Amino acid sequence: MKYLFVICFLFQIYATSANAQSYKYHTVKKGETVFSISQSYNIDEEDIYKLNPDAREGIGVNEKLVIPVGESSNSPKSEVAGTTQFTEHTVKKKETLYSLSKQYNVSIDDIKRYNKQLYSEELQMGETIRIPSGTASPQRSVVAENTPPSTKPVVNSKPQEQQISSTREHIVLPKETRYGIARKYGMTVKELEALNPRVEVLQPGMMIRVGTDVLDDEPVIITDERFRFYEVKPQETLYSLSERFGVSQDSLKQLNPALKEGLKFGMVLKVPKNDKDGEEIDNDAYTGSGEKADTKMDLSKSIDNRSTKEIALMLPYHLNKVEEDSIATYKNAILNEKVIRISLDFYSGVLMAVDKAKSMGISTNLKVYDTKRNASEVTNIINSNNFNNIDVVIGPFLKETSEAAASRLESKNIPVINPLSNRSMRGYRNLFQSNPGDELTQKAMLDYLSRNAPGKNVVIIADGKSFKIKSELNNALPSARNINPSSNFVSEAKLAEMMTDGENWIILESDNINLVSSVTSALNRLARKHNITLLTTNKNSVYESDIISNNHLGKLKFRYPSVDKEYDTELSEDFVEDYKSRFNIEPNKYALRGYDLTLDVLLRLASAKDLYESFEKYPGYTEYYESKFHYMPNAGGGYTNNALYILQLNEDLTISEANDL
């Protein structure tokens, strides 16, 4: 009977809570104020401000406000007669609403309900507040008795390191969504989900973790039904979004002040609810041309600008080292100078691309300059030559020389495209980095792992130098297990302990040849009895060493991120034959890079007014023999190509795409 009585009591509490936590929309009429509305509903003004933060700045006719009904914030009717008692608590140093809610087993909302000043003021040390006791908190009763376990807010005893280093608590309000909460705290939806990995469904009264950067001009709830939240997809641009929603770019910036810092993947924007056709939009990514943002663009079908393209090619030949009267010395320099060899290979690919463009009706005036691997020489070249009509500068190769060129040409807004360097560069607005760099490459692999690793037995092996990526991997894959190498060695027995009968994904992060060798050799033996895939976020030079067996890597289905892929011999057969007949050698990766990058530039110039317009006009990615390109603006200025491959080494030592990003 006692157990039955408790169940009945909890049911009554739930019924009371369900009645107390009802809400409705109120459409503001002419002449109404927050005070008059609060009076008509017999509630406090603070109850309205709590659910409608923007109302503090004023309300307008036809604006919709969320109103709590079924309870009065200041009326005794809202309390269960005879059951609510209070404990007076004097606030001590470092105490927070969160710690008090845990100490007294009540919700933060309950504490605020009986201490109205806490809706607008912070908790003050020394003040005395009333904490309800003697009854279960309605909000907490609902969560405890009626919320599925997967939706309960969870406080981990050993919280993992998050990308958002500083956090605070947030109580979910009625009608709030992930997009609205992420927007309010200046987060992406992925960051919000990473902070709350166990929360699948948001419910009013639930406590979640958020960042601390509150955007004071952004409401939690959009009350104007003309607008909605929209999460920015990977390859969208401000141009494509303005086309999609039928508003100007300036209007989008006014609706979303955060755009002043640049458009970023994962941002949550306030946008018009309907597109130009009046139909409800979905969250798929579209481009301004109506294509999906992840669609491959064939620019050869959009050629409409047939003016001669003025291209300046800056390469580090370093010809000042070559003695003009000595052919033997010149040949020796070519054979021994790696940079010169790379420059010549790249240049050969450029020439092939110029010829290919010519066959499409695109004429090119190519000017080649020797930068001598010197930033001052780059400055001298630009000062001594007329660059006013140059459409694009391809090169220089090195970080310092590229920055020097971009700096001198920024006032003319002439694009400078660095072909190879993966080093982070200064944010000149005209500087384009065609190599995504290590950070974007790692992020691409993290994204691949987070989407594909669930359901697999994931084991992370990282040496001490790789602590940062290890932390990011554990954040992205919370169920992963870790092996800490000892003296750059992992035993086969230790690896065997981690194996399961299902799919085993081993993530190896190290540039130590002894560690990589011991792990790959041991995994190769274990692969006789287990399904093992080896992965890494950074395929460094160690994997090219003769000590590391390609046969082992192939058997382990080795997967890694890459800027380029191996060209398809069948698809590129004509190109290879033409190249061999012209240069008496097969093209290497630098020749193919020169071809792919130059042809992409020429096609973009031929299908738009200039390079900048082409990125807005055709936001999809372009792809050629070994490389693909999709330039996105950097927050600090300039553009970076974020198009990458996830590759797999197969057992027959061929390379295929594991995933196309």
TrEMBL record:
InterPro entries: LysM, LysM_dom_sf, Peripla_BP_I. Residues 24-67, 87-131, 228-271 form the LysM domain. The keyword Signal applies. Residues 147-165 have a biased composition (Polar residues). One of its GO terms (molecular function) is lytic endotransglycosylase activity. Residues 1-20 form the signal peptide. The keyword Signal applies. Residues 131-165 are annotated as: Disordered. It holds the Pfam family LysM. It comes from the Bacteria. SMART domains: LysM (SM00257). Keywords: Signal. PANTHER family: LYSM DOMAIN-CONTAINING GPI-ANCHORED PROTEIN 2, MEMBRANE-BOUND LYTIC MUREIN TRANSGLYCOSYLASE D. This is LysM peptidoglycan-binding domain-containing protein.
